[in-house]
Amino acid sequence: MKVIDKINQKVAAGQHFFSFEFFPPKTEEGVDALWERMERMVAHGPIFCDITWGAGGSTANATLDLAGKMQNMVNIETMMHLTCTNMPAESLDTALTKLRESGLENILALRGDPPKGHDRFVTVEGGFSCALDLVKYIRKTHGDYFGICVAGYPEAHPETLTDDQAANEKAYTDSLSYLKAKVDAGGQLIITQLFYDCDRFLKFVKDCRAVDIQCPILPGIMPIMTYGGFKRMTGFCKVKVPQEINDTVEANKDNEEAIKAYGVDLGAKMCKYLLANGTPGLHMYSLNMEKSALAILERVGFIDNSKVPRPMPWGFVPMHSCGLRRGEAVRPVFWSNRPKSYVWRTKDSQAFPTSRWEGAMARLTFSDDPTFMQIHSYSEGRRAKAQEVWGAPTTVADVQRVFSQFYKNETGMLPWSEFSTQFGIKNGTALSSLEAAQGAVLALVDASLLPINVLLRKFAVPSETPVLGWGPPGGQVYQKGHVEFFASPEALQTLLPKLQSQPSLTYMATNASGSDINTNLQDGAVNAVSWGTFPGKEVVQATVEDLASFKVWAKEAFELWRSDWASCYESGSKSSELLESLCSSWYLVSVTDNQYTKGDFLPSVLA
Amino acid sequence: MKVIDKINQKVAAGQHFFSFEFFPPKTEEGVDALWERMERMVAHGPIFCDITWGAGGSTANATLDLAGKMQNMVNIETMMHLTCTNMPAESLDTALTKLRESGLENILALRGDPPKGHDRFVTVEGGFSCALDLVKYIRKTHGDYFGICVAGYPEAHPETLTDDQAANEKAYTDSLSYLKAKVDAGGQLIITQLFYDCDRFLKFVKDCRAVDIQCPILPGIMPIMTYGGFKRMTGFCKVKVPQEINDTVEANKDNEEAIKAYGVDLGAKMCKYLLANGTPGLHMYSLNMEKSALAILERVGFIDNSKVPRPMPWGFVPMHSCGLRRGEAVRPVFWSNRPKSYVWRTKDSQAFPTSRWEGAMARLTFSDDPTFMQIHSYSEGRRAKAQEVWGAPTTVADVQRVFSQFYKNETGMLPWSEFSTQFGIKNGTALSSLEAAQGAVLALVDASLLPINVLLRKFAVPSETPVLGWGPPGGQVYQKGHVEFFASPEALQTLLPKLQSQPSLTYMATNASGSDINTNLQDGAVNAVSWGTFPGKEVVQATVEDLASFKVWAKEAFELWRSDWASCYESGSKSSELLESLCSSWYLVSVTDNQYTKGDFLPSVLA
């Protein structure tokens, strides 16, 4: 949906709104951290989020990828910045096509910063030299498909500002005419440069209206978070800072806490003033940080922490209005450690099951596109790190060591986990039981049963319990003990009779080709793995397992041996061959203990 | 569906089948017992059941009512016997119309026994004198609507049998011609008279085929259960008993157990022999008893007790193939003590929810027809008993006494319960906790909060547990404590603040008109009341509560004050006026404790 349409709806309903801006992190770790932060921030219901443009080459691709994932994985209406810097028309075409393929409908069109190593903007061959031409080009090539947003400068564009007051006045008037041209060419929404003088912004809006710019104008709010950052940004953007603000920041120069607190105070005061004076909504420059932005919005009254939905066992359920996944309330347990992969792979589905899983596999669309896995897990940087922490295994014992180290929390990397630890918050395992679980899991590894997913039982755990709990307060959550591991054909033969002799266990085992499947789960049957009961609600069945989803997952799980691990080594190398052979000959085994009211079951799998 | 179509399907699939015959009990208690027995028997999957005809007047109506309830309440494909005895054409018309209204499509057309006080059959004025004419009449008036079954006599009709062997041979030949005529007139299925000589039956089938009777012929199997019964039936039906059988029965004449055991042995032997010699299925004359018939079927291999679905908390889920309710897996908790009323009132629904209740009220059709309530609860006999055990209350204290006596298990009657005790098996309350619950319930009565439904909490009770458990083995069942009671407006005012101050309670209260509703349940919200978890299954949410179903139930609950209690007394009498005034001024209150993991909550309602 176009952001402008969502804004018009809000305005028509007399409701204020807010949005967050993010930028593409430079490291993989930064990207991982951003996803978690974004998920928490989006839970508060921004009307949209935007992501700035990492101009040129791989950064451009990374931005397109981030934007696609924001739209389809975080499920927030996403606006991607697009600039002219280093972007010849064909690069723009590629980017626009990719945006459409990812289902994005919103662009913030900018000229962009000067290319690296240049002081002033340089027009690339075959490219454009200003945002106006970019807006025109998008409209020419894609008609009305995209919602287009353009930048507004309450104090004129910084490049046009000098020490000459009269020249600045003229620059300001010119910038209004230029803005009018951008809107006339197809811009439907204006977001402004950051500012600290609210009256300056309000005058800007008035001046825009005077030259017949009628679209919504959103103030760009940049919370003051650090002294250095504030100085850098206001200097770079040539933003006039009111004396009082400057004085306060200077007075607290060496007190980080005080600067941050003042930033929140000031931000809240500014936002309240703007909203009280006709501003329809706020655009928060988050700088990828959540605390200041959320604190300001809370002060303004946008955020009521008591009303933020508590996460499901797999993380937050997106609550914003455009989210197809809003009612989603059940998932296969297999993606517990790869929730992003699950969301990504099911992004083309039209509807998601709300509590029962039965029949869901027929309605869900699982993408076969391995792009997500590769981009997420195996950038060159990550690959180098993987080689470092996993070494070059040449024996099964070497592989066992990699698993042991992961479960000892020594490496933080395993191909089958998006998380750096199996026993973290995401998996909802009691911290107190971590040690016991760790022992049992390491015993599995020693027995050459290589675990990729371990969920400990939960029995009527109050939903408010930190780490373990989920869902609204006053409830009780449950989880059957569940473990999934790779096993050699020989190990499976030894194991199967043990599994078959325990009717309280549900097990499934398959090889990579799917030619040999062993299970005691009835055809079409679905087994509940976790659920919760809450006052005034039906039973929420959060995770399940069934043969159909296990088969889909098994393909992914086996593929990870190859694409995410074996590919770290040269093709034909000993390591590569070992991992390939494990992938093609070993079994993936899933075991769930239906006797969750009693003690943990891991030892019973081994016994 | 027509029984003959179901039989043809089975025959085409090469599957044997069985059916049960019942007769209309003479007493209300007998009817109640039959329903429970029938539910258990139907759980084994008979292809259909039939009910014999209680000829003439009120018995006829009772049979029509029973047949309708078998079809719509027990949800078994039902065949009703219809005879010519005392049935002029207009009475037949009425009966046939009523059958169609109840959705029945199957009739067993018979001449019937001589009317009471007669030795020989007497044709009533305007009626018919033989089954053939009845078959013709049904076809003439209702075309192909009904599936028609007729009776076959492997030894000729008893009335035609004499001591003259040659005459008997002729009678047998004549009876075959007559049977051919019945089939030609529209009979599609033959069920035989009881017999104990299997070869006689097989010869009868052969003889039928010889005169071109091609429809399925089902042997009527009457298990020997008592010496007296066996003698009476074989004498009355003039059935030839092989010498060996007669000798064995005579030898065990005084040993009831031995007779029964022999009856099962013999029945199983007969049935196996018949099936092995081309008989497609077995028709069991149950005589309204379950043990012998089920034991025989088990020996024959029709019944595997380990595969019979365990009941849901509200009783069995019908498993036979025609049952629309087969997948039904959730109901509002309010009908806990009136499950038959619930099934009856929802009989016109096209589909039933399988686990989630949300939105179900929009899809379910609740009949407003109070017929069920009246016929079930208030025959004249029951009314007399009610007056006896309830007396003629003239004060609220008198009414309280009626409730106390019910909960002390002294009376076994309360308008809001189909059961004779609140704490019986049906409600799944732990027998050991009965005493504690009784005390708390009596305290409610003393506080003038008149309970009509009390469910104690269940917390991870193993599903196999007698009384408390339900569903397949290896599971755990749960129930939130739940109580429903009538309260005076004053009592409600005192109570409401207490309810409001306990966020772990879900409450709803309404008056008879529905003009004043108090609740803390969100609009459209559904609260789980009982559920179970089972190996290899999704969470089964058996009972729920929501405002929409509470409103439907409240109408029924308030109506019962009038139709089932006040109507026991003369209109305008003190008792009638008291009950009417309670009905129109008091409130129905439902309270559920969402903290089911902790101790029982009844005292907290009072506190």
Automatic annotation (TrEMBL), chains A, B:
Gene3D superfamilies: 3.20.20.220
The protein's required cofactors: FAD
A Pfam family: MTHFR
Keywords from the named record: FAD, Flavoprotein, Oxidoreductase
Domain MTHFR SAM-binding regulatory residue range list: 310-603
Xref: NCBIfam families: fadh2_euk
PANTHER family named among the record's database cross-references: METHYLENETETRAHYDROFOLATE REDUCTASE, METHYLENETETRAHYDROFOLATE REDUCTASE (NADPH)
Name of the protein in question: Methylenetetrahydrofolate reductase-domain-containing protein
